[in-house]
């Protein structure tokens, strides 16, 4: 399968890269790799069009300086490429997230994820913090929503931590299929995977815990949908944004009746916990 790669240089990086990824994600781009100077984005050649960047608004913004180069990439073995760059995530020696080709550890929670393209977003910091949130809080017997589940790492961990049932949802078909595979790989039969966005969520309180590791714009846009699904006293955990975004996320959450409980930070990325 042939791909077109766009290699963007972004100034300033924060929040430019996050906004650019969010906008490109609305197009046919299916994989992103953050770099020291910006981000690389990849789209299947069959889905590429000459005007694919035409209505990417950040490219016209005078608040950012963004340049890019484009290249054709022939017949890349993507799994092999991810294997070269896939590093396991070790959270306090308690949870170890690895690929099948990594050695098994003695960690209490050993999660095996096939490193397909849905994993390669460069957001290990947010995964790490959300894992810590799950480890630090009670999941026993809870009904959980993992919104924007990606590879369903978080859904799998909550199931391992005793959640009664977990719904994992992602808009991307690759993530949907990969999540089904990963849930089975980790013997998590109580995870149900759905393909779609926040519009498919139930409209009545159902969940004890909501996990949303998504970018700032989507969080702000879809927060009402998440809150409607939460039971009284339910918890919601956000990540996928920078320290600069904390005030806007907190303001929106508190205006909607959520109570702030804690904040984790790692390399300028943030995770926030709220209670309904």
Automatic annotation (TrEMBL):
GO cellular component: cytoplasm; ribosome
Entry keyword set: Cytoplasm, Methyltransferase, Ribonucleoprotein, Ribosomal protein, S-adenosyl-L-methionine, Transferase
Localization: Cytoplasm
EC number: 2.1.1.-
GO molecular function: protein-lysine N-methyltransferase activity
One Gene Ontology biological process: methylation
Coiled-coil features, chain-numbered ranges: none
InterPro entries, per database record: Ribosomal_L11_MeTrfase_PrmA, Ribosomal_PrmA_MeTrfase, SAM-dependent_MTases_sf
Main location group: cytoplasm
Source organism, top-level taxon: Bacteria
Sites where the protein binds S-adenosyl-L-methionine: 127, 148, 170, 213
Catalytic activity as recorded in UniProt: L-lysyl-[protein] + 3 S-adenosyl-L-methionine = N(6),N(6),N(6)-trimethyl-L-lysyl-[protein] + 3 S-adenosyl-L-homocysteine + 3 H(+)
Pfam families attached to this UniProt entry: PrmA (PF06325)
Enzyme class: transferase
UniProt keyword Protease, yes or no: no
Family membership noted in the UniProt record: Belongs to the methyltransferase superfamily. PrmA family.
Protein purpose: Methylates ribosomal protein L11.
Protein name (Swiss-Prot/TrEMBL): Ribosomal protein L11 methyltransferase
The organism's taxonomic lineage, starting at the top: Bacteria, Pseudomonadati, Bacteroidota, Flavobacteriia, Flavobacteriales
Designated gene of the protein: prmA
């Amino acid at each position: 399968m042939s791909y077109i790669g766009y290699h963007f240089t972004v100034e300033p990086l924060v929040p430019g890269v996050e906004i650019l990824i969010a906008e490109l994600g609305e197009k046919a781009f299916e994989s992103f790799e953050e770099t020291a100077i910006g981000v690389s984005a990849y789209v299947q050649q069959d889905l590429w069009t000459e005007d694919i960047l035409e209505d990417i608004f950040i490219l016209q913004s005078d608040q950012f300086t963004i340049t890019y180069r484009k290249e054709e990439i022939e017949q890349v073995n993507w799994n092999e490429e991810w294997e070269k760059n896939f590093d396991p995530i070790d959270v306090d020696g308690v949870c170890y997230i690895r690929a099948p080709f990594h050695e098994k550890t003695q960690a209490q929670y050993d999660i095996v994820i096939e490193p397909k393209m849905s994993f390669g977003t460069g957001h290990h910091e947010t995964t790490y913090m959300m894992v810590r949130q799950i480890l630090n809080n009670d999941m026993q017997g809870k009904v959980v929503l993992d919104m924007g589940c990606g590879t369903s790492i978080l859904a799998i961990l909550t199931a391992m931590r005793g959640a009664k049932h977990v719904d994992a949802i992602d808009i991307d078909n690759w993530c949907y299929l990969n999540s089904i595979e990963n849930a089975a790989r980790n013997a998590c039969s109580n995870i149900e995977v759905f393909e779609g966005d926040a519009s498919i969520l139930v409209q009545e309180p159902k969940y004890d815990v909501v996990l949303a590791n998504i970018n700032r714009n989507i969080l702000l846009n879809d927060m009402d949908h998440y809150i409607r699904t939460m039971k009284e006293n339910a918890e919601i955990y956000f990540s996928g944004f920078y320290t600069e975004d904390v005030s806007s996320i907190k303001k929106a959450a508190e205006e909607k009746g959520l109570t702030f409980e804690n904040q984790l930070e790692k390399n300028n990325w943030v995770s926030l916990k709220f209670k309904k």
